[in-house]
Design goal:
Nucleoside Triphosphate Pyrophosphohydrolase, 35% strand, 16% helix, 181 residues, alpha+beta, 8-stranded mixed sheet
């Protein structure tokens, strides 16, 4: 089922909208019958990192829904006014209190049903101390054989970690793109 952020009222004038395909378009949109404004609902960007300290990866135990109590890479929604890389670094600091050096884009996953695009960057931890924010119960390092695979919060995190450890064994880290429908 496709995730929906359905607009019911015009964000410009407050009039109830009509859902129809506007002229010169090919998709149903929320169109205001009063002022004519067309509302576009586009995917949200989720940005994060794969922070590494030696042979270990940093994971955060979620203190918020969805998937509270499960482990994830530090990530969250990109904010206006920042690049994807800046957002990923900010989320890593906010969720884990980690000091990192960004190392480049690693993974792009289109999560079609959720209306999201997940972008993960490789990052090198500058030290192994963490000061998690309120959205995180615990932040800690895991070797590959210690990853709580059955307690990972999201499929995109599992995919990214599995690929990361496979790439690490090969000694190459090319950008990877995938789709989840």
């Amino acid at each position: 089922m496709l995730f929906s952020r359905r607009i019911e009222h015009c964000q410009v004038c407050g009039t109830p909208v009509e859902h129809k395909v506007p002229a010169d378009d090919n998709r149903e949109r929320a169109v205001c019958p009063s002022c004519g404004h067309i509302h576009y609902v586009n995917p949200l960007n989720v940005v994060g990192t794969v922070p590494v300290w030696g042979e270990q990866v940093l994971l955060c135990k979620r203190n918020i829904e969805p998937r509270k109590g499960l482990w994830t890479l530090p990530a969250g929604f990109m904010e206006l006014g920042e690049t994807t890389e800046e957002g990923a670094a900010r989320e890593t600091h906010e969720e884990a209190g980690a000091n990192i050096e960004m190392q480049g884009l690693y993974s792009i996953i289109n999560v079609v049903a959720a209306g999201q695009v997940h972008l993960f960057y490789r990052a090198r931890l500058l030290d192994p101390t963490f000061d998690p924010g309120p959205e995180t119960m615990e932040a800690r390092l895991f070797r590959e054989d210690e990853i709580p695979w059955d307690d990972l919060a999201f499929r995109t995190v599992r995919m990214t970690l599995q690929r990361f450890f496979d790439d690490r064994k090969k000694g190459q880290f090319d950008v990877h793109c995938a789709d989840i429908r």
